[in-house]
Specification:
Elements lengths: L9 H11 L24 E2 L7 E2 L11 E6 L4 H8 L10 E3 L6 E3 L6 E2 L5 H5 L1 E6 L11 H18 L8 E3 L17 H11 L2
Parallel strand pairs: 1-5, 3-7, 3-8, 4-7
Antiparallel strand pairs: 2-6, 4-5
């Protein structure tokens, strides 16, 4: 059984109150090198890929983005993030969407080139979105996953001026030279495109 802890002294309480009153402006800055990344999509959480798995770039002008590529992870959300954080893997995507609740992790900034398409030209002009699941297990394509992914894609399309159609929102299997089949036969393109259109503000 845990012993009762002594109550703090009056002096200690007063010191604590004084510290709480210190203005934020007087507090020290975060240590140099501390990572404070603003995400590109407001509801995403920052889960950075290792810099060994993407190409730093600035695609606002010389390399405009005109495609969104839809992927399925073929593993779990957690393991996907681990793959992107492993320098040996040489792969990444800009975003990963979790199946059960649609939670979105951003792993690569949209200005940078993620290595997701298996085709350098397509990598340079696209945003890659991975979805937790397997191509032959449609139960992973939950309503939350479709809804949150569609809101993400709508936001990307609006910010980059990408038309919302099947010529510009494509599956990994449509990338020239790929041997991938994702998002697979159970991905509901009609439902997804309608949800993207409805998510546009």
């Amino acid at each position: 059984m845990e012993r009762a802890r002594p109550l703090p002294s009056r002096r200690r309480l007063l010191k604590g109150a004084a510290l709480a009153a210190v203005p934020y402006a007087l507090l020290p800055d975060p240590p140099a090198g501390a990572e404070t990344h603003a995400v590109d999509h407001s509801t995403a959480e920052w889960q950075p890929a290792t810099s060994a798995n993407f190409t730093t770039a600035d695609r606002r002008t010389p390399r405009p983005v005109d495609l969104v590529i839809i992927h399925v992870t073929q593993t779990s959300y957690r393991k996907t993030l681990g793959v992107f954080q492993s320098p040996a893997k040489k792969v990444s995507a800009h975003y990963v969407v979790r199946s059960r609740d649609g939670n979105i992790a951003q792993c690569v900034r949209e200005a940078d080139i993620a290595w997701h398409a298996g085709n350098w030209e397509y990598n340079t002009r696209s945003i890659g979105i991975e979805h937790e699941g397997w191509v032959d297990r449609p139960a992973y394509f939950t309503g939350a996953l479709y809804e949150q992914s569609a809101a993400l894609t709508a936001d990307i399309c609006v910010r980059h001026g990408i038309p919302i159609d099947r010529a510009h929102i494509i599956g990994h299997y449509e990338v020239p030279g790929t041997d991938h089949t994702d998002p697979g036969p159970y991905w509901d393109w009609g439902r997804y495109l309608r949800a993207v259109e409805q998510a546009v503000p």
